[in-house]
Amino acid sequence: MCRVLLVQHSGFYAWLRSPMSNRAKDDRRLTGLIKQVWLESGCVYGYRNIHDDLRSIGETCCPKRVWRLTQLAGIKAQVGYRRRPGSYGGSPAIVAPNHL
To answer: What is the torsion angle, in degrees rounded to the nearest 10, for the CA atoms of residue 30, residue 32, residue 34 and residue 40?
Structure first.
């Protein structure tokens, strides 16, 4: 495989043994905080409110990063406390025949 990809054997094995990057470690820690905030909200908050809560506890991060991590973790906001506009219940009205 190394020959086909034109990669040296020593470089490949060094890459295998390398620890996680600082960014990956920080993403893992931040994902844990995001899940904690989301569970404390009753699984209701989306990424915007999660970002606001993270800033209130002193965590500095970008909303786009919170969005990316929530997507990877499968965290979604609960949608729909109220009825959506345009959805009317009941039976349809009876239309009178046109006699003209």
So the answer is: -150
Per-residue tokens: 19: 């620890």
Domain membership of residue 27 as a residue range:
22-77
Q: What is the pLDDT of residues 54-87, one digit of tens each?
A: 999 999 999 999 999 999 999 999 887 666 676 6
Q: CA-CA distances (angstroms) from residue 44 to 28, 37, 50?
A: 22, 10, 10
Is 90 within the bounds of a domain? no
Number of domains in the chain: 1
pLDDT average, residue stretch 17-44: 93
CB 38, CB 73: distance < 8 Å? no
Residue 49 CA, distance from chain mean position: 12
Q: Long-range contacts made by residues 46-53, C-beta under 8 angstroms, separation at least 24?
A: 46/70, 46/76, 46/77, 47/75, 47/77, 49/77, 50/75
* Res 83: pLDDT: 67
